[in-house]
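Deliverable D5.2: sample structural annotation.
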Amino acid sequence: MYNRKHSLFAFILLLISSACFSQANTFLKKYAGSYHMLTDGTVANSKTDKYVFTPDGKCTWTMFTTVNPDGSVSNIPVKKSGTWKASEGLIQMHFVMGDGEGEELISDFQLTNGVFRAGNIYLKKILAAKAEVKK
């Protein structure tokens, strides 16, 4: 009887973990894509930070304008790799900054009125441009 109970318990745990993984994958696929990060009142342009979330949980942050340690501004794009998680109405990003010695950026964006927001900062999905049809 013990073996049967143990096997049933293990099977139930396997089902639960599979369901959780499947649900997480569903939201990664649902929310995957390219986004601009904006603050209230701003409009995306060619220098707006860009985030690309892939369905496998990886993400890339491209900063088109950065401030150097001496205070000067650089317009050379810098890319940071990170990871992201998603659940119902939530995107969580994680990037290691600097030399990787504890400088971590973790951001939680809640879906509010169709937009992922963290205070006055929001992610705007970049929609694919429609190709012009020649007649």
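Annotation notes: Strands lie at 33-39, 50-53, 58-63, 66-67, 73-74, 78-87, 90-96, 104-112, 115-118, 121-125. Residues 2-31 form the longest helix (30 residues).
The annotation will be released with the project's public dataset once the embargo ends.
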